[in-house]
Each structure stands twice: as C-alpha cells, then as structure tokens.
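Task card 7
Instruction: Convert sequence to structure tokens.
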Amino acid sequence: MQARIIVVEDEPDLRDAVAEYLGASGYDVATAESAAAARTVLETQSFHLAILDIAMPGEDGLSLGRWLRSKMPIGIIYATAAGTALDRIVGLELGADDYVVKPYELREVLARVRSVLRRVPQPTEPQGAKAETTAKRRFMSFGSFHADLDGRFVTGADGTVVDLAKSEFDVLEVFLTRANRLLTRTAISEAIGFVEDSESSRAVDIRIMRLRKKIEADPANPKFLRTVRGEGYIFSLPTGESN
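Output:
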C-alpha cells in the first residue's frame, strides 16, 4: 500500500507543486487549502503523514496538528516561514516529527518525508504476513516499563499505554538499542534520521525533555535518561534488565 500524505497549504501554487512532486515520487497525496477543509477530509480518510503550513488564515497549522494527534497516529511536518524560530520550537514541543522552512526546495521536502515515514507505522500487512513476523518482534523493558519496538508503543506497570509522540518514541528507541552508551546530540539526530541544521541540537533536547516527563518519576533527577554535561546523554539500563 502506498503511504498516504495530506498537504495543507493556503498558497495554491505551492500546494499543487508539492502534491505533484510527491505524487510523482510514488505517494498517494491529498490536498487542502485550509485547516477547515483538512478537517473535512480527515474525518473520513486516514493518512500516514501530514505537511501543515503553520501560518494559515483562520485556524493555524499548530492547532490542526494538535487535533490530528488526538485523532490518529500520523507523522507531522510543519512548514514555517524563514526566521520564525519560535514557531518551529513550539511545533517540536507539540510533537512534530520535523519541519521545513519556506521557501523550500521540493527535494528537501521529499527527503524529510522519506525520513519521517521510516519512523511512522506502515500500512497494515496482510494477516498471513503479520502472523509470520509476530514471533520476531523486539521487546525491551526498563524499570516498570515495557517497550514494543516494532509495534512502537510503551506500556507502564499497569499495562496502560504511555502517550508518546512518534518523535519521542524515535528517541527512546535510539537509547534503548544503545543503552549505557554516551550519545552526542549529533549521533542522536543522525540515528533518528533528523535533517540537521543549526537548531537540531535544540530539537533533540526538546524531545528528550518531553520523554523524561513521561518515563521518569522525577524528570529533574532522571533515573534512566541522564545528561552528561558538555557531552550528550546516556540511557542507564542495568545489565540483564532489557529482555
């Protein structure tokens, strides 16, 4: 099944250009000229990824992104005007998977789309294929938490699923599969497929801050995800605890 993408952009020429380029690259693309129009489409259709312009008349892209997160598991890329760093930071804090700065090249959008889609749930497999791969699923534990790395979810001691954005799970998976190793921000960015720029370190820090709030009893004094001042981060996991 083709990955399905919705492009929400109020500039018609840009909207059509992005849709045409992604469609020619093998994706099933729908478009909407506003958040209101997107909501109408999204009430009856599901998508793997949304590209949302932040500054649209009426409801903005950040608000639409919050609504989307409450409705379906979906990757989100925000498009923001050059120089509006605050919008990008707010978007990342709300759980965005990536962002592009306008004006942007279509090749850059495609690279970011491919990067995010590698990290979001893929189209459902036929039942037979799913049954064959179930036994190969990867599970890891840390403290009272249990992570299904292939199902991409984490449960707590009571079995309740922890509410993690995809970008937060991406970071957690990097740490779980590289436990007890010092990781720099650059290494983390590369591992999650984040397209690095001058704000990539801040983006990693934001994801880690959000993650700590959800898996640490005391985020200010983390047990698992510790900061190594001037170096990076390390995920402390006692030997033998991961399986």
